[in-house]
Amino acid sequence: MTKLPQIGKPISRLEGRLKVTGSAKYAGEYEAEDLLYGYVVNSTITKGKITVIDTTEAKTLEGVIEIFTHENKPSTAWFDFQYADMDAPPGTVFKPLKDNDIKYNGQPIALVVAATFEMARYAATKIKLAYTEEKFETNLQSNLHKARDTKKGLASMLKPPPPKPTGDFEEAYQNSFVQSSGEFKHGTEHHNPMEMFATTVIYEGKDQLKIYDKTQGTINSQMYVANVFGLKMKNVQVIAPFVGGAFGSGLRPQYQLFMAVMASLKLKRNVRVTLDRAQMYTFGHRPPTVQFTKFGAEKNGKVNAIYHKAIGETSQFEDYVEIVVNWANMLYPAENTLLEHQVVPLDVYSPLDMRAPGGSTGMHAIEITMDDLAYKLNIDPLELRLINYSEKDKSSDKEYSSKELRNCYLEGAKKFGWSNRNPEPRSMKRGNKLVGYGMATGIWDANRLLARVQAIMTSDGKVAIKSAVTDIGTGTQTIMTQIAADELGLRLEDITFLYADSKMPFAPIQGGSFTTATVGPAVKAACKALNEKLFRKAKHLKNAVLSEMKFEDVIFSEGFIIVKNNPETKISIAEIFAANGGKEIKTTNTSMPNPLRYGKKARAVHSAVFVEVEVDEELGIIEVKRAVTAVAAGKIINPKTAESQILGGMIWGISKTLHEETITDHNFGKYMNPNLAEYHIPVHADIQDLNVIFVEENDTFVNDLGVKGVGEIGVVGMPPAIANAIFHATGKRINDLPIHFDKLL
Amino acid sequence: MEPKETHAITLNVNDTNYQIQILPWVSLLDVLREELHLTGTKKGCDHGQCGACTVLVDGKRILSCLTLAVMKDGSAITTIEGVADGENLHPIQKAFIEHDAFQCGYCTPGQICSAIGMLKEGKAQTREEVQELMSGNLCRCGANRGIINAIMEVKEGGCHE
Ligand code: FES
Ligand code: FES
Description:
The structure holds two protein chains of two kinds. By secondary structure, chain A is an alpha+beta fold. Chain A folds into three domains: 16-22 and 449-592, Aldehyde oxidase/xanthine dehydrogenase, molybdopterin binding domain (Aldehyde Oxidoreductase, domain 4, 2-Layer Sandwich); 32-135 and 194-246 and 250-281, Aldehyde Oxidoreductase, domain 3, CATH 3.90.1170.50; 143-189 and 285-447 and 600-743, Aldehyde oxidase/xanthine dehydrogenase, molybdopterin binding domain (Aldehyde Oxidoreductase, domain 4, 2-Layer Sandwich). Chain A has a seven-stranded mixed β-sheet with strand order 3-5-1-11-8-9-10. In chain A, strands 14-13-12-7-31 form a five-stranded mixed β-sheet, sandwiched between helices. Chain A has a five-stranded mixed β-sheet with strand order 17-18-26-27-30, with helices on both faces. Helix content of chain B is 32%, strand content 16%. Chain B has a five-stranded mixed β-sheet with strand order 2-1-5-3-4, with helices on one face. Chain B has helices at 28-35, 91-98, 108-121, 127-133, 144-157; strands spanning 7-13, 16-22, 54-57, 60-63, 76-78. Chain B is of the alpha+beta class. The interface between A and B is large, with 61 and 60 residues. The complex binds FE2/S2 (inorganic) cluster (2 copies). One FE2/S2 (inorganic) cluster (FES) binds next to loops of chain B.
């Protein structure tokens, strides 16, 4: 009567019904009594000082309650560190309304609070402003000479600097049989989740707040609010059960949270602040980056020299870092390497992790350079990857905990039909269109952090699992329920996963593809601990059937503790509760990787991506006709939601390569297309045949569940695979993203 | 210019009549969300660029953010909250769950209302045409394949209304 495992089943999202009926509530949708609406005013200059901010007229409008500016901002925390959040880069966190200093275009400079949204927005237009402007720099290209090394800080733990040089790159490169080099650029990109940032603050009495926030970390927002406004942690509750997309934008508390809390505390009222779409371009972005590669290979295809340098934009106040150049040597075991990462501080807001930060940037350069090498060596691009295949991460000299990339290559190639490719550029045609096949490798870290989880069983045999973690559309709620069901031997219906509430046990911010590997094992551990408690109580029952047994001798199934080699002998959970007086049984556990052991192996997820493009040279149209991504990411808990993660990532890859870019007018230091009409993302008509393969990968090292994470890996291999396919179709190497038709000319 | 005078209008939303006093500058979207607390209809841009605010007015799909509420006095409006028949989900809703046609779910109400309107228009025959006529509804999560699969299943199953 053992029930079938839930792990591995393509369960439909448990919150599906709420989402398709419009009952799922997002941060800006909670009702509150006499709710006030805040509208943010943003600076129209890029650098300088506010000399006049006159709110007199605006304040006289009917329904306007208050206007906050740097001149009347209630006092908040003094010290910089009090503003730091879990994803803060080294530097000084930006503080809204701190003073009259303007650091970037679009900086929030005032909050109008009114009885209606319309009036708040209207009153904002009546504020009189004057500035003195100062000279600014926003152009990465023209400031590359200012590139410098980055400061180190707490964030460097998850984002290690590039490995030290090995061997002698220059000499090896000069002496290699073939050489390939390139310069790669991409512009600014914005996350643009469909839901705009919003915070609803419920004023529950003196210094006591309930906050619905759009965030990827309820405890991150809670900590920020408590520190900045001098409140007790326990008096600040942050809730975010539904998050309308985030992709990294919710890893840091954004300014609407600050604004809403400030107004609520001052006015002792319920307040909502929602940003508009243009304001979604005023708090963080993927930084424009320039990269240089030089790879050298021997005649047999072995890469022996790797140079990879990246220069990314950052702000004047924080050193935003991402991992761009560490990947090549993790994949290809060259002996001679030189890897560098620098930043150029400019008058912009700090960049912010955006889906597959750094990885999607670096792999673009690495995998195009590999493709170019393949052509120069006259070796099939897939073959070249296999020639350079390594079971070890050369850069750290550690074995991989698991690495089924070879099977990703093979299974992906087979499904795609890679062998039908004629390697000659411009050789494949369909009607009047050129056809190109391209491939690339993807890699991403498999990390695990600390998390706490509580499991509570009530006398009806149902279990509540609690964690502060969010579910930003990743399927976390469903997956955690599956994990708990298997560990407890219960049905999905018997388990409620309660989450996204800062009052619940600690979970880190949801990002970096580490959530399932972090919270999953914590759920498993808490459920195991709950079973152990039940077992101990069962041993002491009067009938004593289990008194001689050890925990290993029993299984838990459908409300019974059953002796493994004698299934007739069992104790029902109901009996245990009866003896326990019906009281709930609960346990809270902390779970983290073993610090002595965890660092001993390299841990990564891998993918192989195959893409077919069609290029209409006359009309300048590039279409991704087909793509196959084969992923090795350890155990897949839920193939349905995991596939959606990969598909979403692939579409992000298509978008990054062929569509999206935030364009800056450097004369004004201002983004020119902060809206969804001019910031292009793929529409339904752009998405054609996409396929995902999950390759078997057993990993007993990464964590008890053998899971790695699938949030970013879908993105990383797509841009180079598409660019390589375009080269194959057209014979043109286009290294700058996005590739619009003008680049084909 | 700041409007001063409220107007009395009647909106029939999901078979319920609402009499409201409203300033003429309020969009239908904001009336639904802020006055009637029907927050199922989403705001993704407020500029007619994303489709998240799609509702059905007298059976036709429209963008409620580009519509002033006063323009729809007397109209019958169906929002995502009124798509299901009581506890019984609409076939499109069921297919969305089955095909995992959403991740964060924020574009979903707009996608579903738009799909129902699109099928009713009867113009799209092929998958490509469906993709084309659904292209006003953006999905940043990249649930596009699931969305189109779900719609195609209902279209081919012929069980839409
Ligand atoms: S909110 Fe109406 S189209 Fe975006
Ligand atoms: S499901 Fe998130 S935007 Fe479509």
